[in-house]
Write a structure and sequence with these properties.
513 residues, alpha/beta, Rossmann fold, 4 domains, 8-stranded mixed sheet, 17 helices, 46% helix, globular
Length: 513
Amino acid sequence: MEQKLYQWQEECLERWFSNNGRGMVQAVTGSGKTLLALTAADRLSRRQDLELRVKIVVPTAALMHQWSRALRAFHNEKGTQKYIGLRGGGYKSSQDCNYMIYVINSARYELARQILSELRAGKSVLLIADECHHYVSGQNQLIFEFLPHIAPYKDHFFSMGLSATLPSGQAGHELAAVLGRKIYSYGMETATAWRTVCPYDIFHIGLSFEPDERIEYEELSDRMSVLYFTLISSYPILDKLDQKERFELLRSLTGDKDKRIADTARQYMRLSYIRKSLVCMAAERLDCAYDLIQYLGIQDKILIFGERIRQAEALYARLRDLYPGKVARYHSKLGPQANKNALERFRSGDIRILIACKAIDEGVDVPDAAVGIILSGTSTQRQRIQRLGRIIRKKEGKENAILYYLHITESSEDSCFLPNVKGTRIFDLEYQPDTSMFYNFCYVHKASNILERMQSAGLTKDKIHEAIHCLNLGSIRADWMSEKSVIEQHIQNAKSTRERNYWMCMKKMAEES
C-alpha cells in the first residue's frame, strides 16, 4: 500500500506528471524529498507500457545506503534486494536491476552509457538526481553525456532533480536542460506552517572575545579597513555589492593586471581569513557549549556543528569526561570506518552527543536529533539550511526541536543564522562565563517573581534550590511558552521527581503575567 503523502508532495507530483515527468524540486531538508521521488517512480511504472528502470544518483556512499534503506521500506517486500542495485562505495551490482543507485564517482563513467543502452533496448528510464546542485561542475557533468542522443526516445525518458538549494544562473540553466525546469519550491516557511517538519525554536547566544582576542580582532579590522579604502578608490562598485558579490570581486582582484591592486587584494583576503579563523576559534565558544550541555543533559540526542577539527577535538575531550561513552565526533581526519561507526552508534542511541565538522554538512545520512548546537557558524546559506534540516525531521514522539547558535557579538559574524521564518520563535540569550549562566531577560524577570513568592511563602532552602535549578534549565528552552494543556500532560507523564518539578515550574512561568 502506498504511503500517505503530504499535500505539497501531491501537488508537486501533479505538476511533475503534467510536465511529462520532467522537472526539478527545491524542498527544505527533512520535508520528504526521498518519499516524493520513490512515489513518482512507483506511479510512473504503473502508467508505463514499457519496463521502467530507475537510476538514482547521489553524492556519497552514505546517501546511497540511505536510499537503499528507503527503497526497501517503501516497497515493504521480502526479496526486494534483487531489484535494488548499488554502484559505488565498493559495490558493483549487476546492471540488470529495476532500481540502480549510483554514487557520483561511479556514475560519471557509466550512467550515460547505461541510460542509452536501456532506452535502445525498449525500456523507459527515470533519472533521479539527488542533491542535483552537485552535478553541474567539472567531471560530474559526464553523467549527462546521453542528452544529445536521446531525441528518438524522449517519450520514454523521465527525470527529477532534488535539492534544498537549487543553483541559479548558468548552472541552473544547465541542470534544467537535462532534468527539466524547476516545477516546485517548498521552503522553510511553508514547511513550518504546514507542519511537515518538526516545530523548532532558535536561540541566539551572544558571546564575547577574551581581551587578547578582542585586541587582535580590532587590529586586523583596522588593517583591513586601510586596504579596503585603497581598493574602493579604484573599484567604487565594491560598496554597492552584497556580501557574496563583494567577496567574489575581491577574490578576482587578486589576479588583477595592476600589481598594486592585486597585492592589496591578496593582503585583504589573507587578513580576512585570519580574522574569520579568530572569530571561529574564540575560546568562549567551548565554555558556552560545555555549560549549555550540562544544563540540557542527554535525554535528547544533541548534534554539534563546528568549523574546525581542532575545536571539535577540544570539546570532545571535555564532554567525554562529563558523559563517558556517550560522546563521539565525526570529521575528515578520523577515516570512513570510524565516522560510519559514530553515526551508527548515534542512530542507535548508544551515543547521545555527536560533534561534527563540515564533512557532515551535506551528503551524509545523519540520524535524527532533537537539539542542534552551532559551535561556530558558516557564511554559506546552503550549509545553514542543511544544518537546520538535520534537527527538524519529523519523528514519532518528537514534539519540537531546538537550535542554539553561538555567535561573537563584538565581531562582524552574522548573528541572524536563518531568515526569520513566520511561526518560528527566536530568542536571544546572553552567556555569563563567570557564573556559567544563561540570561533571557524577559524570562529572568518572571522567574525572579516566582522565587520571591516562594521565599515569602516560607518554603525550605532545599525546595528553593530545586526551583532555582529547574528555572535555570527553563531559561534555555521555550517550554514555559507551551500551551497549559501540554504542560499539564508533561506533569502527569513525568518519570521522575526532578522532571515533575521542572514542569511544575514551567506551569508557574506560563501563569506569570
